[in-house]
Amino acid sequence: MxxxxxxxxxxxxxxxxxxxxxAIISGFIGPFVVxxxxxxxxxxxxxxxxxxxxxxxxxxxxxxxxxLLGSVVVAGLIGxxxxxxxxxxxxxxxxxxxxxxxxVFLLSRYHGFSTAATNxxxxxxxxxxxxxxxxxxILAVAVLIIMVIxxxxxxxxxxxxxxxxxxxxxxxxxxxxxxxxxxxxxTEAAQIVGTLLVLSLAITPAxxxxxxxxxxxxxxxxxxxxxxxxxxxxxxxSLGSSSVPPTVYVTGISFAIYLVxxxxxxxxxxxxxxRLRLHRxxxxxxxxxxxxxxxx
Amino acid sequence: xxxxxxxxxxxxxxxGSGKTTLLRxxxxxxxxxxxxxxxxxxxxxxxxxxxxxIPQHHDFDAGLPIRGRELVELGLTGHRYGIPWxxxxxxxxxxxxxxxxxxxGYADAPVGLLSGGEQQRLRIAQALLxxxxxxxxxxxxxxxxxxxxxxxxxxxxxxxxxxxxxxLFVTHEINPILPYVDRVLYLVQGRALLGExxxxxxxxxxxxxxxxxxxxxxxxxxxxxxxxxxxxxHLLGHHHEHDNEExxxx
Lengths: 296, 250
What we know:
The complex is a heterodimer of chains A (296) and B (250).
Chain A: H1 3-6, H2 10-35, H3 39-60, H4 63-81, H5 85-108, H6 115-122, H7 130-159, H8 161-166, H9 171-193, H10 199-202, H11 204-212, H12 216-241, H13 246-293
Helix pairs in contact in A: 2-7, 2-9, 2-11, 2-12, 3-4, 3-5, 3-6, 3-9, 4-5, 4-9, 6-9, 7-9, 11-12, 11-13, 12-13
Chain B: E1 8-12, H1 19-26, E2 51-54, H2 68-77, H3 88-100, H4 116-128, E3 134-138, H5 146-163, E4 166-170, E5 183-188, E6 191-195, H6 197-200, H7 203-210, E7 215-219, E8 222-226, H8 230-236
Parallel strand pairs in B: 1-4, 1-5, 2-3, 3-4
Antiparallel strand pairs in B: 5-6, 7-8
């Protein structure tokens, strides 16, 4: 069956819809993750969705709901234990280790199909049921609405927390809201690329986007675009070649975009620095003109 | 104590004497334990448009996804919810503030690439955006070379004179701003003193404030406060071993 034939099938359509939604929300939160230096929180939340999913499997045979509920618990724990930025990484490490231990225990209690467990770790975009899709649509819309609402104060709080506080931005509340959104998004993304590879959707596109632009809205747009390219491109390539799982293509494309950004980024940066240097030269020359004139 | 419009008050004192706490109270971030504070007849609250704030200087990371003009704009709209779509009236106000501080040449560059002086100019543009009638500056000259110190002080002073704004200028170093200072608020270990510079900077007044013999030297119109007393010397910041800030008064 060719690619066109696959696209008639519900599993492929579900995969593309799910992939698109997750790419949009991951790409949207990515620049904030990078600006707030929360890459490790993403990693921690992603791995811990394994524990939540395992709990969901054991208790109700539903890993997705288990992972989502677990992610909120994890966000709360990280938020409470790692309130100070300096303590955050160690708090994540502590919660991560304890949570994974619990996950291994839960999985040892589970006697169903073992693919259910590997699906949590490496993702199974081609196993998205209609129910999963519905849940994802609701979640993605909720995440997008909240992100659009808090975009500007969150940007302010991420760039200059002290001043933001002085200007009446509730930086603490925003930090916790963002942490919950992050955990929910990451858990959903884990359904596609798996917990271990979730960074390639929540961080890599944003990290690449930052090397092309500096205006916040442009960076956000590029980040969403790159995430879409990686996810939908990866799914389509996988459908076309059938034997290679989509995770490989998604992470591969994502990494390729990042490599291009690393190659092109320095050129853009050099041009910017050069323009700045010329400007400084010009303004110091005009300043010395004034200085010389005052002696005439 | 009362500060009039158009007045520039220098706030001086050793580390931990409460300079930043005073600003936090005026910003509405802290409530005074006793007494009351009013700005134009109302208690201070965060996000009030008639108070401009220039925070302590710290460098922005090179990779931050923000340019100078967005940084300035956040000073006006950063507390509002929503997406910062470009709006003509806001863009015009931002352009105006940027040209006021002479930052047109680098307003479109990522802030992380800019020098300390350039970043500080943008911060001033950000603080001046709402035409505040009160300007709170927390060591805005820290880590700048003398020429930049002079430029930044002139910008702040220009806003004071053109908008008749009251300025509270927290600083470690009085000399760069001495020509502009109307009065000095000197804080030492819970004691406070308010007066004109030539009243405050005398051997007698400062010795009483520090509770130890302190000398004031004037060299070429510049003031130097020194002490042979170990305790007072510590407060004055002449202890180089664990001083992570600039040595004040030098």
